[in-house]
Amino acid sequence: MKQSEMLIPTLRENPADAEIKSHQLLLRAGFIRQTASGIYSFLPLGKRVLKKVEEIVREEMDQAGAHEMLMPALQPSELWKETGRWNTFGPELMRLHDRHQREFALGATHEEVITSLVRDEVSSYKKLPLVLYQIQTKFRDEKRPRFGLLRGREFMMKDAYSFHDSYESLDKTYEKIYNAYSNIFTRLGLNFRAVIADSGAMGGKDTHEFMVLSDVGEDTIAYSDQSDYAANIEMAPVVTEYEQSDEPLKEMEKVATPDQKTMAEVAEYLNHPLEKGLKSLMFKVDDQLVLVVTRGDHDVNDVKLKNLYQASIVELASEEETRQVMGAGFGSLGPINVPEEVDVVADHAVKYTVNVSCGANEDGYHYVNVNPERDFEVKQFADLRFIKEGDPSPDGKGTIKFARGIEVGHVFKLGTVYSESMNATYLDQNGKSNPMIMGCYGIGVSRTLAALVEQYHDEDGITWPHHVAPFQVHLLALNVKKDEQKNLADTIYETLTEQGIEVLYDDRKERAGVKFADSDLIGIPLRITVGKRAGEGYVELKDRKTGQQDEVHESELSARIQKFLNKEQ
Ligand code: ATP
Ligand code: MG
């Protein structure tokens, strides 16, 4: 395609609000533009890459026995009410009314729509298993849309859903799709890892996330330094065995701690290490107030809290609400003399603490020499903290280390949560009615595109792997006013295009410096520069990624390009 006819608005400077490389480069190289916060247009170059990523996803999904379809983005609220998610999904679900004041949601995900569809169309075990997928726009009113395509409010997702008459059948499909995902991310050239995850708002049990390893990732992966264990930090169970201290128990005392609010301030003021203090946080777990106690050097894992209560919503209580029941603000909360309506739960490590400090539920005061169970009661001890680097690996092999990851894919075994609430049943061989067993499988297609740029760039721009690059060859005519350059470039453009090679032809009346800079920014894998030696039929061929270049006669170009593309397969 001719660059003079395309919309590729490149920018020399980094846009002020773009913090990470993929966001900066996709904007600067003219792949995307922001329309509103978290909402983007894909310009022609961006759309070409998106299509290539989608094509790889399609090929592997089809290969795994899934069938493509397309569901509506606009979904009636009745479906979401059947599963209860009209309430539990919360403000992330974009809602609107039609002219008759009927409520709708913009699809954040499609379990409700697909389950209602399959419920109406499939009634016999003979049609199972059934695996359907779509590639479509999703809408989520994210609290913090950021990092460009990584966390948008409107984004492209591939979502697949499977329906089964047995758990064995679900296991088989889960494994097939898990393998398809591994193929997809391998073919895309991404450095990724599949990790054990939490099923979150989706309900259900077995689930893995596919994480692209990257420092800008919002997720932390806990992995073993000695085995292939890897889990999202939210999920990794703590298996540390704490030792019983032989320190003699001391008399509890109340002490003034004026203006000392954080754990660190209090520990310093009372002159003890962080782990000698208890941290108490007030949560609202659905409608129940829960005071969660951990050791001062540990952090509460709200996903574990949610799972402990099998709750749908877990959030920190407001300071006002907390003060009302506890009589003190956040800085002075503790588990002693807690009103009955508040549950006190504690992390396992708390049980083994001796002579620790904690808030006195009175502003500006703490207790010291507190001993759990002697001085306060705990409704339940449970694993409620985040795993830490250095903790033993949950599989018993090695110790835990952390890495950052971008979640690009997610596979879940849903079981019967949706089919039961929506009454999606089938008749088995004996004519008995059973709820369908389900799985669901997502890939963030637009997020994957950004993850690719995070892994493929250098200081000058993007360095696309060729199977997802918007074009394979960038052809630059340095001075289009010179006939020999223009003519040779035109010929090369026609020849390569006829051979099915995707060529972006920079035929603009721009300075050579501008063309080189734009070309580096856009990041097409091979560059042909038609310049001074055009009269003799010589051009320069450059590998964007390695920077390797040499002079090649036009007659050898096709063979050289084919060789490069084959090597890169
Ligand atoms: P996250 O924890 O990042 O919010 P999620 O668990 O909400 O992700 P899923 O509901 O599993 O995501 O959606 C499937 C896939 O869609 C994710 O693996 C991710 O790649 C992609 N995705 C989710 N939210 C966004 C978003 N706001 N912008 C871009 N892609 C997204
Ligand atoms: Mg999310």
Give the cofactors and ligands: adenosine-5'-triphosphate, magnesium ion
N→C terminal distance: 23 Å
- Number of distinct helices: 15
| Helix amount | 25-40%
Structural Rg: 29 Å
Please, how many domains? 3
CATH topology of the largest domain: BirA Bifunctional Protein, domain 2
What is the CATH superfamily of the largest domain?
A: Bira Bifunctional Protein, Domain 2
Mean pLDDT over the residues:
95
Sheet with the most strands, sense and barrel status: 9 strands, mixed
Beta-strand content: 25-35%
CATH structural architecture of the largest domain: 2-Layer Sandwich
- Class inferred from helices and paired strands: alpha+beta
Low-confidence stretches: none
What's the β-strand tally?
31
Which geometry do the CA atoms define? Answer: globular
CATH C-level name of the largest domain: Alpha Beta
